[in-house]
Specification:
Elements lengths: L10 H14 L9 H9 L18 H8 L15 H9 L9 H21 L5 H30 L1
Helix pairs in contact: 1-2, 5-6
């Protein structure tokens, strides 16, 4: 399955719209594997099919953020002009979340992932409770965004 398989999986179009809406609403959006492809495509980036069969799993940029503890700037997400080595060099220049701040960073990112999952589960429901829960999720995204901005500000200052 790929990001452009809307003819096979009609739900992909709705998924892309949800992602675009979340991003335009300044919500934190985390995507892993297909999710990362959908985010890239929603932001206008080209997503390319791998020319080689994958042998093992490859970390997405979002997973790299969690594992290594840095925030990847948006301009790096569509840098197809870089070799893997050049991209690794770019990543090595990013400020790393310190050990004392990492638990909060991880909590922000992981909580965002859980909220996105729940939001997607609710998106096709029209019950009042579902709509209210989606509003609460959006409010939590705003709080998480604020926390992330403060955390990143602390990293850049220190």
């Amino acid at each position: 399955m790929g990001v452009y398989d809307e003819d096979k999986y009609n739900w992909l179009a709705a998924e892309k719209l949800l992602i675009k809406h979340a991003i335009k609403s300044d919500k934190i959006v985390l995507g892993i594997c297909l999710g990362a492809q959908l985010i890239a495509e929603a932001l206008g980036a080209k997503v390319y099919k791998n020319t080689h069969r994958e042998i093992d799993w490859i970390l997405t940029l979002s997973e790299l953020e969690l594992v290594y503890g840095f925030e990847i700037p948006g301009e790096l997400f569509d840098r197809t002009d870089l070799t893997l080595g050049e991209f690794a060099e770019e990543l090595s220049q990013l400020p790393v979340i310190s050990d004392d701040l990492y638990p909060e960073f991880y909590d922000i990112k992981f909580t965002s992932m859980k909220l996105i999952k729940r939001y997607i589960e609710l998106q096709n429901k029209t019950a009042v409770e579902s709509v209210l829960e989606m509003r609460m999720i959006n409010e939590r995204f705003e709080l998480l965004t604020d926390r992330l901005n403060v955390l990143l500000g602390n990293i850049l200052v220190n």
